[in-house]
Write a structure and sequence with these properties.
With 496 residues, the protein is of the alpha+beta class. It folds into 2 domains: 247 residues, Fumarate Reductase Cytochrome B subunit (Up-down Bundle); 186 residues, Sulfite Oxidase, Chain A, domain 2, CATH 3.90.420. It has 15 helices and 13 strands. It has a 5-stranded mixed beta sheet with strand order 4-3-13-7-8. The chain has a 4-stranded antiparallel beta sheet with strand order 5-6-10-11, with no helix packed on it. Strands 1-2 form a two-stranded antiparallel ribbon. A hairpin with a 5-residue loop joins strand 5 and strand 6. Helix 1 packs antiparallel against helix 2, helix 7 crosses helix 8 and helix 9 crosses helix 10. The radius of gyration is 26 Å and the shape is elongated. It is a multi-pass membrane protein.
Length: 496
């Protein structure tokens, strides 16, 4: 038995952990993509402008008649995490896996650099490109480079490893955080540089494809090219090829166990979705608390009128007679009878129009993936709110409308959202009454909707009915902080 210095224990351990976490990332990513199975390069997200879609549905060109939830596809729990149209839980699993994957990656790269083993995968000579081309020709002819070309990898594998570790993995991280409203508010030029929300989303997808192709080829070559050496190196960190049978058995059983674990996570989640939400959200909140909550909006926005979208998706349809006769009556009299209750005051639309108006351009993003850039106008929420009572930590905003559907199939409940006091007092948290210079459209929340630009769209309550300070959101609904948290198990903190 001889120890192979190229495969120490820490490297083999981080390699296995990475394999487990990459599977969780891909499977939860499939769940997120299935909730909006279309990809665009522009923030317009108009039907027919997709550069790639995973659905045969043809969409109507008219706004407000087709909601994004209607476009959602259901994937099997065998394929996605957790599957069956549960994008909220899919995002929680994705966030948890990302945090662990980044931590594991930092450990790996730190040890790689500190031990000098980085030379195994980082080219130090331009000759590597010529050698890689020779290896590529051999592989293309279904041949195998001779063993002496592997130190421990041949030139082509070295370049592929370098690309994944130092290009595609960072690209996944950079584009992933760019889809966060908090990042977009703080670093708007960075997000715009990537092509906005949809550019970041498409680049994220392409990076995922590149990593997936690498994994497929990598695993194939492990078993097809000098496997008697590869498997012993990977499992035992040894050079004794006599242990090949043991290594083959160990790695085969490990792969099978990991696949079973991936699928079991899906069924564990679906068996009790509320339990999974209770377990996952506090963990993912750690990342939001330390990296997103402290971020404040940039003093100058990077988006201009030229960025305004021509099409705006919606989630949820306007209140019906069964949901709110009061709202329908106000709509029929051109909002003369509309009232929004703010604390003890009952305000009309004219009252809202008489207040100082904020105007800015911002991108609305939905947890499903679509986006739209608009100019929003209306009074800041802090100018509407009464003095903050002692012990009040949150603001509750209620809608005249109902939830689209409840995850447990109970009757639809009145739509509401809760935001933290700090969010309510931000400059770009307003009660929007105009969009792109015109009165707010009915399907987008007329006559007034909440806009909280540091949060995803599920916090932006449409058809606002009342606004009030509260002490604790645990006393309302299911105690999760909003209807989308109750009905679709989203996170209370909508910054990512």
């Amino acid at each position: 038995m001889g120890i192979n210095p190229d495969f120490p224990m820490w490297l083999r351990a981080t390699h296995l952990i990475n394999f487990i976490l990459i599977g969780m990332l891909l499977r939860s990513g499939f769940e997120i993509l299935s909730s909006m199975p279309r990809l665009w390069w522009s923030n317009d997200c108009a039907p027919g402008k997709e550069w790639l879609k995973f659905t045969k549905r043809e969409l109507p060109r008219e706004e407000g008649v087709y909601t994004s939830l209607m476009d959602e596809k259901s994937l099997s729990p065998i394929i996605s995490l957790p599957g069956r149209e549960n994008v909220g839980l899919g995002r929680h699993w994705h966030g948890a896996a990302v945090m662990l994957w980044v931590l594991n990656g930092l450990v790996y790269v730190t040890l790689l650099l500190s031990t000098g083993l980085w030379r195994r995968i980082v080219p130090t000579s331009w000759e590597v490109f010529g050698d890689a081309w020779e290896s590529a020709k051999i592989y293309a002819g279904f041949g195998v480079p001779s063993l002496e070309n592997f130190q421990p990898y041949d030139a082509l594998q070295m370049l592929a490893y370098s690309a994944v570790i130092f290009v595609f993995a960072p690209m996944m991280m950079f584009t992933g955080v760019a889809m966060s409203p908090a990042i977009r508010e703080r670093f708007p030029r960075y997000v715009k540089m990537l092509g906005g929300h949809q550019g970041a989303r498409s680049l994220h997808f392409l990076s995922m494809v590149c990593i997936s192709v690498f994994i497929i080829i990598h695993v194939t070559l492990v078993f097809a090219v000098h496997r008697e050496h590869n498997l012993v190196h990977m499992v035992f960190g040894d050079v004794d090829t006599a242990r090949y049978a043991q290594a083959f058995t160990a790695i085969t059983l490990t792969i099978a166990a990991v696949i079973i674990f991936w699928i079991a996570l899906s069924y564990f989640t679906l068996a009790d979705r509320a339990r999974a939400h209770h377990f996952l959200v506090p963990f993912t909140e750690l990342g939001r608390k330390f990296f997103l909550n402290p971020l404040k909006a940039a003093p100058k926005n990077a988006f201009t009128d030229a960025d305004i979208s021509q099409f705006h998706w919606t989630n949820g349809l306007p209140p019906t007679e069964e949901e709110s006769r009061e709202w329908l009556a106000a709509k029929s009299d051109d909002w003369e009878s509309y009232r929004v209750q703010v604390g003890d005051r009952s305000l009309t639309l004219s009252d809202l129009e008489a207040l100082p108006q904020a105007s800015y351009i911002a991108t609305h993003t939905c947890m499903q993936g679509w986006s739209a850039t608009s100019r929003w106008e209306g009074p800041r929420l802090r100018d509407l709110l009464p003095p903050r009572p002692e012990g009040a930590n949150y603001v509750l905003i209620e809608s005249y409308g109902l939830a689209q559907q409840m995850y447990d199939n109970r009757p639809r409940e009145p739509f509401y959202a809760v935001i933290e006091a700090s969010t309510a007092l931000e400059d770009r948290t307003i009660l929007a009454i105009r969009r792109n210079g015109h009165p707010l459209e009915v399907h987008l929340g007329a006559p007034a909707r909440l806009r909280a630009e540091s949060q995803h769209g599920y916090k932006a309550v449409k058809w606002v009915k009342s606004i009030q300070w509260i002490a604790d959101y645990a006393d309302y609904g299911d105690g999760r902080g909003g209807t989308r948290e109750d009905s679709a198990l989203q996170a209370f903190n909508g910054r990512i």
